[in-house]
Amino acid sequence: MKIFASVLLLTLCVLGPVTGRAQDKRIVMIAGKPSHPHGEHEFRAGLLLLQKCLAGYPGIQVEVYSNGWQASDDVLKGAAVIVIYSDGGLKHPALQGDHLQQLDALMKQGVGLACLHYAVEPTIDRGEQELLGWIGGCFEINWSVTAVWDADFKSVAEHPVTRGVKPFELRDEWYYHMRLAPGTKTILAAVPPLSTVSGPDGPHEGNPAARADVKQGLAQTVVWTTERPDGGRGFGFTGGHYHRNWGNDTLRKLVLNGILWVAKVEVPPNGVQSTVAPADLEKNWDQK
Known about the structure:
Elements: H1 2-15, E1 25-31, H2 43-54, E2 60-65, E3 79-85, H3 99-107, E4 112-116, H4 128-134, E5 137-138, E6 145-153, E7 168-176, E8 179-180, E9 185-190, H5 208-215, E10 220-227, E11 233-237, H6 249-262
Parallel strand pairs: 1-2, 1-3, 3-4, 4-11
Antiparallel strand pairs: 5-8, 6-7, 9-10, 10-11
């Protein structure tokens, strides 16, 4: 009996814990501070919902941190991917203090980065070149456009991020006419209506170049990926303005697939399967 117990103990030591949790890849999600009216820019609720959808998925550990960048540097240590869903521009959490430098060090180690909705917008002077290199694209004022429109995605690119994703149509605030780096892969694109640039020019409202593209019926990239020379991956997603849209199975699958892909976790042949009940969409909203 003692011999058997010794052999069993040795076997467990060799194999490690049965759950293998120590080997899980950390997916660190940063939710921005409360923003916009109720039901819009629900960063915390949206990321907690995505965390719930990934709960129990083998090989990963998903952590959500609320109210922007965390004070402790330990939060980002050992992350396989950092997901930022927040306000952008001057309020972007990555543009505060030395956060760009922190991210730069992690990106050079091959850590993945995913930016959702407003988080794809840095400023021209600070953050634009970094995001172009890290995720392959970004929103640029006086060039890109923010508008609410019904995007009809008639086709999807062949890519692990689109596994199980079929063509769909959805109304959201889709940013378009993005700055994209060479080698960036368009995942979803659609033709915006002329109404999205029918008003006066403005930093987010429209510009001659964007208007010319729309008049020509050119499809505009709204979701993209990149694979960096340092071995890291990037994912940009411009939707996600309305919290209710996380209830759309196709949209949710696309983003969940994207997060896994950036973390270098194999995306299932039919994509990430998840179910969201109407009650789930009513949870964890910010007090605004």
